[in-house]
């Protein structure tokens, strides 16, 4: 199996994870989570998004979050931007700017209209104006391509359509893209084929995968993407997340589940898994629902349990204290 020796993980929980929560999460708690994530060794965090507060009320405190977080050396802080100048202007007005920005749009026309109320070409015309301003500010820039593997309104997205959007982006000089599986429809074979196609067709392009675990295939999709040559992945602590404009969308792959799998496979991340699990567990105090995290539920493989005590006749009790009967 061809695997990289090390991968880069961006935790998008503070943005993608919190944006769909109905109950207001206090700004202090958001900052607490971001600061704790940075101390785990996560190399990048998508801290918030400068979308219109009416569109995503949970992220209305974007300026305060970015101003008050404690910047940890070695961690890069990204903000997500809609394809509008206003969002970029808000980010550039910060006294302490983000390290990088991602401008998002959809590969499918119907989802782009549902998400940002514009056609793809209308969004790209805004991007044409945003790219030079971003570069003048010295910020790293990537394009976020939602619905890269399927659209909740149109179904399958032809590879030719993805090519058209990528090529339109490349005219602006951007060479870094995040492929979003917005509703978790991408199967491993499809993910491999799409990633391999783009890397072969556009040499020098940097790809990242943003997998949602809606149908339980996110970890398998990551393995397929690695085999195609992708080494950058988005994940969300606790498995939080989802798109408010994509029916049925659920959270990203849980960062701790992803890191656990990679470490078990001998792929380095630079992340302290125990510290990451601790951060995920604190989320249970913040959100009023169960986390989609296997590690929070089951623990690591190395978290061994004590063997059950023997009965007088040498038989063993099960963990539910039911005698073993031999009936399967």
How would you portray this structure in words?
There is one protein chain. By secondary structure, the chain is α/β, with parallel strands linked by helices. It has a single domain (8-298), classed as Alpha-Beta Barrel (TIM Barrel), CATH 3.20.20. It contains 12 helices and 8 strands. Strands 7-6-5-4-3-2-1-8 form an 8-stranded parallel β-sheet. α4 links the parallel β3 (76-81) and β4 (100-106). α8 runs parallel beside α9 (218-228) and α10 packs antiparallel against α11. The longest helix is centred in the middle third of the chain and has 17 residues, at 120-136. The protein starts with 7 loop residues before the first strand and ends in a 30-residue tail after the last helix. The model is unreliable at 322-328 (pLDDT under 50).
